[in-house]
Amino acid sequence: MRNHLLPPFLLLCAGLAGCAETTGFPSLAPRPIEREVLRAEAVPPVPAPAEAAPIPASAEIAEIVARALAADAAFKAELERARPLIEAGRNAPEGSEAWVAGQQAYSAADASSAPVAEALGELDRRREAAADAGDGATEAAITDALVQLQALYEAQRAQLAALMPA
């Protein structure tokens, strides 16, 4: 038995052939008003806004240190909030609610120390760039800031370590 239906491909071609007629459909050619717009002169480009004066390196360093000091204050507040939970969970049986609450509080306190570590990383990248550029004064200023922030970071790590069971 032979199927007398047209194959689907031929049906598709026949259907598309009917779309090829252009009578009754609008043209895709530009309309008269669009031709005028195409011939019009382009609008002159808007001048770029004046760039802000670069912030001196010393001001940037001071801002990074100020952010780290504020983050250290936030760390200390978080640590004081977490301390009772951590201490209660320290001697609780592993897996108990008090133990879980203590672990979560410790993790929150530990996470709150991250901004100081990030500031250390930022200052270290800037010190390296200053060294590569041969800017000894900026490198020295950044090194002083690094020493200050490193002491903050080490104090934070020591405070967290003191909360862990012996």
How would you explain this protein's 3D organization?
With 166 residues, this protein is mainly alpha-helical. 70% of the residues lie in helices and 0% in strands. The chain has a domain at 57-163. Helix 3 packs parallel to helix 6 (136-163) and helix 5 (114-133) packs antiparallel against helix 6. The N and C termini lie far apart (89 Å).
| Rg, nearest Å | 35 Å
Q: Give the number of helices.
A: 6
User: Which percent bin holds the helix content?
Assistant: over 70%
How many strands in all?
0
Alpha-beta content class: mainly alpha
What amount of the residues lies in strands?
A: under 5%
Detail the poorly predicted runs: none
Would you kindly provide a brief summary of this structure?
The chain is built from six helices and no strands. By secondary structure, the protein is mainly alpha-helical.
Give the topology, please:
Elements: H1 8-19, H2 32-39, H3 57-90, H4 97-111, H5 114-133, H6 136-163
Keywords:
single chain; 166 residues; mainly alpha; 70% helix; flat
